[in-house]
Here is the input.
Amino acid sequence: MPDCSKHIADQIRDAGARRQKLKIVGHDSKHFLGRDTVGEELSLKEHAGVVSYKPAELVISARAGTAIEEIDKVLSESGQMLASDPPKFDGKGSIGGSLACNLSGPGRPWTGSLRDAVLGVTIIDGRGESLKFGGQVMKNVAGYDVSRLQAGAMGCLGVIAEISLKVMPKPDATATVAIEMVDPSSSIRYINELCGTSLPITGACWDNGWQYVRFQGAGRAVEKAISEILQSRSDARQIHSEVNYWESLRDHEHDFFSSPDKIWRYSVKSTTELQKDGSSLVDWGGAQRWVRADGSVDNMAKECDGRAGKVSLFRGRESHEDVCHPMAEPLQQLHKGLKSRFDPDFLLNPGRLYSWL
Here is the structure.
């Protein structure tokens, strides 16, 4: 695949001369995230391809438009994987979009987020200038961590052109147990106690009366974990379709996400008691709560007060409403200052993250 960075930079400079806003688009698999934004389309779809891969050093570099599936295929040939297991979205999910939205899979609390894996990035700012931050090894990552600042910025702080990531070996074995638990609060207490053990947990989700727990690692360690759970819980059973289950969670294709209702994502401390009424899915061992409910982001955010949590509207936005957790005025000023440094004319994805950004 060609390197389209020069074309992207030229388009940004041309848009700046015309005071034309730009809407950054890859494979359009995450169009429902964030707020609606308007502008001339700036496509990264063709800016794809693995630039370098060093299996012995556990490092891969790829252009932003590279599909997660393509990266997985390359890594799999050497028995490696992306630790964060970001969503593939039916083959349309790209590495640049995943970083821009900071998306990670069900194993995030145990294997790390996509943000954690970033070693370096090359971005093209609002002036059309190419800027490189970080490197390809941890010891080279010094100074201000601008690379990881791009995680979750949704393109507001520059167009991600290339990313270098650390990867990890694939586990030798994977197995999942399902434990019957009608009460999600009991599930939260149980899974937090379980996470305090040495069992190789890489997934924990409470789903409609069942607590699913995934174990990954050396074959003998996984077998021992499964045996221990089955012997200690008469209401537990091993399931053999675990790949499909965890992939449906990762790609948001689980039945829970098919609802036309608004779907909210709460990020809270894993031990936080479940207080929200309504249909919910409790992932990440309690740290990520999906809730189907009506309401505004301001009202939903009030439920996080005093619980050190954040909430955002994942799906079901209306017109131009804000969808991310409200931010205090001092933090708004800090974000605006960053925006003005990287995108002084506010050309890139205006309002995608917040109406004032």
